[in-house]
Amino acid sequence: MAINDISLTSGMRNNLLSLQNTTTLINRTQTRLSTGKSVNTALDNPTNFFAAQTATARATDLSNRKDGMSEAVQMVSAANAGITGITSLIESAQGVAQAALATTSVTDRASYETTFNTLMTQITELASDSGYRGTNFLNSQNQTVEFAPATGGATLQIQGFDATATGLGLSTAGTGSGSIDWADSTTGTAGIQSSATQLENALNTLRSQSSTLSANLSVVTSRQTFTDNMVSTLQTGADNLTLADTNQEGANLLMLQTRQSLGITSLSLASQAAQAVLKLF
Predict the structure, then answer these.
(1) Paired residues of 143 in beta bridges
(2) pLDDT tens across 9-63, in order?
(3) What residues have CB less than 8 Å from 101, skipping those under 6 apart?
(4) Cβ neighbours of residue 234 closer than 8 Å, sequence gap 6 or more
(5) Which of 74, 194, 178, 119 lies closest to 127, judged by CA?
(6) Among 5, 59, 117, 125, which lies 20 to 30 A Cα-Cα from 33?
(7) Cα–Cα distance between 69 and 88 in angstroms, integer?
(8) How far is 176 from 238, CA to CA, in rounded Å?
(9) Which residues contact 192 (CB under 8 A, 6 or more apart)?
């Protein structure tokens, strides 16, 4: 229908425009109430909309980094469990060495050699089993943990070490190549004492590496807490820029509905003048 097909009185046209404006405001208020936001698009408030988008995007990027941090914590925890187990095995090996020193029987020392070598094998196997999702800090593997939204912006390099028996400088007992012979009637005692020294050094190495891993774990957990706080701050800031006051919007909607009813009544009154013409017939 063309705009000029129907002619309205000035009063009716003004009332109609007022009703159209009221309907637009009602739709906007209903959108704010349904979304809970006063800024839903760039048309509502470009400055606040884009500022909120930037803050939300950064919060999302930081949240994605939390997964990597959480995985790093589990990797360190797996390594710590391995160190605890290896420490226990070394302490058991120290007991075996002490028992071997307490006897001069070649037969008994040969038996202790077998037990000692079994413990050395278990140390190596336990170190190999201490990985988490393909990363094993007890097998000299490293892990880079990302903290910043941009790749490489803030990182921590967690370095592993060789926690196998060989990596800890532990020699097997016996007459094989690289082994220390406990059962030799001449040098057996010195050999056992050498093994005991190696075990002490291995324990010191484990304690030192455990301390380093604990420091790295502290850094990662601190960054986790910091990231949680930053994400909350960014989200709160974005919400402050876009959230609607639902109480105020509810009052606005009530007033607009009242204004709409009055507008319809006013339009009806304006049309009565035109309807009066019909009474002439």
Answers:
(1) 158
(2) 788 888 889 999 999 999 999 999 999 999 999 988 999 999 999 999 999 999 9
(3) 189, 192, 193, 196
(4) 55, 56, 58, 59, 62
(5) 119
(6) 59
(7) 29
(8) 69
(9) 97, 100, 101, 109, 180, 182
Output helix, strand, coil percentages for the chain, rounded to the nearest 5: 70, 5, 25
CB 231 within 8 A of CB 57: no
When the pLDDT of each residue in the chain is averaged and rounded to a whole number, the result is 91
The one-letter amino acid at 203? L
Q: How far is CA 130 from CA 107, 140, 162, 207, 214, in A?
A: 35, 11, 12, 17, 16
